[in-house]
Amino acid sequence: MRIIGGTAKGHAIKAPKGVDTRPTLDRVRESVFNVLANRGIFGTDVLDIFSGTGAVAIEALSRGAAHAVAVDFKTGKLILENAKHCRVDDRLEIIPRKLSQLKNYIVGRQFDYIFSDPPYENGFIQDTIDLVVTYDLLKPEGVLLLEHHKDELFSLPESWECIKEQKFGYTMVSYFVNTAERS
Questions:
Q1: Residues 138, 144: contact at Cβ < 8 Å?
Q2: Dihedral of the CA atoms 103, 105, 107, 111 (nearest 10)?
Q3: Is 28 helix (H, G, I), strand (E, B) or coil?
Q4: CB neighbour list of residue 109: distance below 8 Å, 6 or more residues apart
Q5: Helix, strand or coil for residue 90?
Q6: ∠ CA 30-122-104 to the nearest 5 degrees?
Q7: What is the edge-to-edge ordering of all strands in the sheet holding 138-149?
Q8: Neighbouring-strand partners of residue 46
Q9: pLDDT of res. 20
Q10: φ, ψ dihedrals at 163, nearest 5°
Q11: Among 45, 53, 58, which residue's Cα sits nearest to residue 3?
Q12: CA–CA separation, 151 vs 160, rounded Å?
């Protein structure tokens, strides 16, 4: 795995051993960041939930995000090691907690981009949506990006709209905005 663009382009990052973590594929990350480049990544605040290797947060920082938060209760040390290797650790905050333990760390904060890539088909996509909506974590022009199994079911509040979907085999990346915040 490598960082694809920006100041850390080409830097290899480590993945945890075993099958507990399923890192976002380079081609998926490249496609996602091509979409975000059109919206603007420079100076943004990014939240990466189920961060795993930290690749998405590190990629965002490499491409000019001002600050990123990486959340993963198992891989915090690995994320820090990868961030230091890519020289973005000064702008990365790591929260080594489960999604259910996140409330105290994020209440009152908002992000331009929220990315979540949880284990597939375990209900974590819906849990992520509920967390984002309940604590108003997305800035008015922000985007919630969910990587999920193509057959996974979840629901969003009425004011939320899917603005883009990308399919990579059985993997989907869905982009959502809160239309109530944009008007």
A1: yes
A2: -110
A3: helix
A4: 137
A5: helix
A6: 80
A7: 92-95, 67-71, 45-49, 111-116, 138-149, 171-178, 160-168
A8: 68, 113
A9: 61
A10: -100, -15
A11: 58
A12: 20
DSSP letter string over 92-104? EEEE---GGG-HH
DSSP helix/strand/coil, 19: coil
What confidence tier does 180 reach under pLDDT thresholds 50, 70, 90? Answer: confident
Whole-number Å distance between alpha carbons of 30 and 19 = 23
**Reported pTM:** 0.94
**Number of residues in the chain:** 183
Question: Residues of 151-163 as b/e, b for ≥16 C-beta within 10 angstroms?
Answer: ebeeebeeebeee
pLDDT, tens digit, for every residue of 158-168?
Answer: 999 999 999 99
The pair of three-digit structure tokens given for residue 144, joined into one six-digit string: 């919630």
Here the tokens at position 16 are 């945890």
Residue 64 scores a pLDDT above 90 = yes
Q: Residue 164 has what DSSP assignment?
A: E
Q: Where are the alpha helices (DSSP H) in 65-111?
A: 76-85, 103-106
